[in-house]
Amino acid sequence: MENAKRNWFIGIRTPWTLSNDKVWNKTHKLGARLYKIAGVVAFLGVFLQSFASYLMVLPIVLASIYCVVYSYFEYQKQVKK
């Protein structure tokens, strides 16, 4: 995901990332890190089975929301330039 070029099929496809290459690259660089961390946290669900559903769903949802909000603010920075 970190090296994906701007396209309509894969990646974090918000109106802001699709309209600007810099926003796309920054968002996907951050998103790659966040989703890797979310994967490690989800893996902890194997060991903490009573919290497994939370450890699998919550980090991915939070990372996704953060990426969308981040892309919006990055786009606003680019528009002001």
Could you characterize the architecture of this molecule?
The protein has one domain (15-80). Helix content is 70%, strand content 0%. The chain has helices at 15-19, 21-43, 52-80. It is mainly α.
- The coarse silhouette is elongated
Strand content: under 5%
By DSSP, the count of extended strands is: 0
Structural class of the helix and strand makeup?
mainly alpha
Mean pLDDT: 93
Main beta sheet: none
What is the gyration radius calculated from CA atoms?
14 Å
Number of domains: 1
The termini sit apart by 27 Å
Count of alpha and pi helical runs = 3
Helix content: over 70%
Low-confidence stretches: none
Order of helices and strands: HHH
What layout of secondary structure does this protein have?
Elements lengths: L14 H5 L1 H23 L8 H29 L1
Task: Spell out the key features of this protein.
elongated, mainly alpha, 81 residues, single chain
In short, what is this structure?
With 81 residues, the protein is an all-alpha fold.
